[in-house]
Write a structure and sequence with these properties.
The chain is mostly helical and 167 residues long. The protein has one domain. The chain is 77% helix and 4% strand. It contains 5 helices and 2 strands. The protein has a two-stranded antiparallel sheet with strand order 1-2. It is elongated.
């Protein structure tokens, strides 16, 4: 094998991760597009970046673990992949909290659905990193269904409950 073939084989995993990054951007973009067209604060770019960041944290964590296992004694290296997910959830919760505002005048909250859409965007990116593409795409479509279709049905539920006699 010549040095060019060796080079190509060494970059193949990174190219695969970049393809995964594009998939994460696309799926996160679906949810971000919906938020953008609904004129919400966290829109297209935010959702795309949250999805890709979640995917990258998992993939870089996997690389770090694999590299460390090659160098260190496997018995001394203890890994817990759930810690990566915990860190992602903490970061996304911080972002989501920034989208929630209480309107004291009308006694309502704003931004809760956008915060929830950011929260569901993170595990979509994680699923992409774990090669669970059907799960990632299916979750994105289900979330899009909730954001788009249920949003149109929700006022009807409120109307129906307002018309019900009170006891």
């Amino acid at each position: 094998m010549n040095s060019f073939e060796t080079f190509l084989q060494s970059i193949r995993p990174e190219l695969y991760i970049l393809v995964q990054a594009m998939i994460a951007l696309l799926l996160g973009g679906l949810l971000g597009w919906e938020r953008e067209t609904a004129h919400k604060w966290a829109g297209l770019r935010t959702h795309m970046l949250v999805c890709m960041a979640s995917m990258m944290f998992v993939r870089v964590g996997q690389i770090l673990i694999a590299d460390s296992q090659r160098v260190l004694n496997p018995e001394t290296l203890r890994t817990d992949p759930v810690r990566i997910i915990e860190a992602i959830v903490t970061g996304v919760a911080f972002l989501g909290a920034g989208t929630i505002f209480r309107d004291r005048a009308s006694l309502t909250m704003r931004g809760l659905t956008t915060a929830a859409s950011l929260l569901i965007t993170a595990p979509i990116g994680i699923a992409v990193a774990l090669d669970r593409y059907i799960l990632a795409a299916g979750t994105a479509l289900l979330a899009l269904f909730v954001l788009r279709i249920v949003a149109h049905l929700e006022p009807r539920f409120h109307e129906a409950s307002d018309q019900m006699p009170r006891q």
